[in-house]
Amino acid sequence: MSDIILGIESSCDDTSAAVIRDGWLLSNVIASQEVHRAFGGVVPELASRAHEQNIVPVVSEALSRAGVAASDLTAIAFTRGPGLLGSLLVGTSFAKALGLALDIPLVMVNHLQGHILAGFVKEEGVPVVQPSFPYLCLLVSGGNSQIVRVDSPTEFVILGQTIDDAVGEAFDKCSKMMGLGYPGGPIIDKLAAQGDASRFKFAKPHIPGLDYSFSGVKTSLLYFVRDEMARDPEFMEKNKADICASFQKTLIDILMDKLVKAAKQTGIREIAIGGGVSANSGLRARVQEEGRRRGWKTYLPAFKFTTDNAAMIAIAGWYHYLAGERTGLDVAPVSRMADF
What we know:
Layout: E1 4-9, E2 15-21, E3 24-31, H1 44-66, E4 75-81, H2 85-102, E5 106-110, H3 111-117, E6 135-140, E7 145-152, E8 155-161, H4 167-177, H5 184-192, H6 215-231, H7 235-266, E9 270-274, H8 281-294, E10 297-299, H9 310-322
Parallel strand pairs: 1-4, 4-5, 6-9, 9-10
Antiparallel strand pairs: 1-2, 2-3, 6-7, 7-8
Helix pairs in contact: 1-2, 3-9, 4-5, 4-6, 4-7, 5-7, 6-7, 7-8
């Protein structure tokens, strides 16, 4: 008998629902919230209100596109955390109510595990290319920067992580600092493609082990722009492509130095990336380049699975469901999750 899983994702500002059958994607619906663009970042209260408006039509549309009735569902997977508490509360509460009404089990999912397993979503007509276990995943997003050893679909070990800011936050802060807009990552990536990445140098941290730090490089950019603008008020406008290219290269260098180190220490040559920043063209090219040089097998997620989406929650939830995991109605969403 087939397992049909409904996935619900509401950790930040995207309301998403997806349906998978035995690991194969039937639908993946996302409702984004444009209101935050005017504020230069996500406003939690506005996000949670938008989730309340979007959750019912999004789930309904996901079921309709999948050609599945609610009564056909085997289980409901939902994001418990980490994320914005108000946003998570909407998705968690809806999942509980629907699960109770249908008398089917719930499976809570760590949002970060969803990003890591996004590459395991299978689609009709798309070749199945998945890493073998164990593999290393460079998980990079607006809230997290980690190197994770993935031993199975339900076993994860964090080898290194940021001790301060996430790389995605560094991209956004750079964009805001330069007045380029929000979200910053895609804007900087686009400008970087037009610039000279070797023109400017920014400070790189010296953090022991496999941990990351990105606060210093942001400060380095801030002081650099401040000093140059004091000499020439038009400096940033005349050089923004080169600044973006140089800044992006610095961030990618920091990420890749530790990933290479982790691969050497573990002897693992199966390398994947995940999270919102895994859509960055410079990072994707660099991972593939290092893979060719070092004999890695590299795995890049489809662009549509790099941002927050319910397909990744559904696939992670399915694996936990197969492992016999179930979630009670007393579970509460959490903004941070201590256990991976």
